[in-house]
Amino acid sequence: MSRHNEIIYEVVAALAAANGTDPGSLEYTLADYVDPTMIERVVASNTATELSFQVPGHEVTVTADAEVFIDGISYRTGRRSPISTSERSVDGNREMPDQRQLQRFFTNLPCTVYQSRNEAGWPIEFISGNCHELTGYEPNAFIIGGVNFGFDLIHPDDCDRVDAAVDAAIESESPFSVMYRLQTADGVEKNVIEIGMPLFDGSEPLSIVGAIVDLTDMNQEQAQAVSSLEQANPHK
Q1: pTM for the complete prediction?
Q2: pLDDT digits 0-9 by tens, 1-28
Q3: Which of 180, 190, 174 is nearest to 230 (CA)?
Q4: Last residue of a domain, one of 29, 64, 96
């Protein structure tokens, strides 16, 4: 059984364990509440992401590391008892923050943080949870739902300018900043500034990381400061 197919069994087994029963005794099927292929895609993505969904009586989260959380408790094959997220560690020693802790940290920032692949439209690999306030979309819409930031959100008249700013940053191996119009899921147009930088594997630009700030509610002094930052970028 492949890792991707095995994760479906792991989710069912975890739900059964949470209910104190065996998998064959569950009163519902997983497919009634989530498309199993979405779970497989998360595990196959090789990115720091996760999928959350509801089943009767429980909230389920599956991470790209093939960990299954039921109501915040991690269920792992071979363990006698579940472990909480606070007990997750490396080599059984030093505790490390889990993906959900990082997501909560990024969500509290006054901007939307992301990592995207350096491909057409910049497919999102990670985006902070507060992206819904900015874009009208939940994080999973970008990661496994097919919504493309470059093709679906950036105003068509601004795409060439954003492309040029990112291309120039890649060529010079330097950060970029660019202002553009963003179109939300509800059709609202927002002015934003994006500040980012390319990440390289040797000489190959693999990813773009950055932050997007909504300029809509900024006062005049704040907007002028942000505008000065964008004007200081020579690759507009």
Answers
A1: 0.56
A2: 445 458 888 888 889 888 888 777 777 8
A3: 180
A4: 96
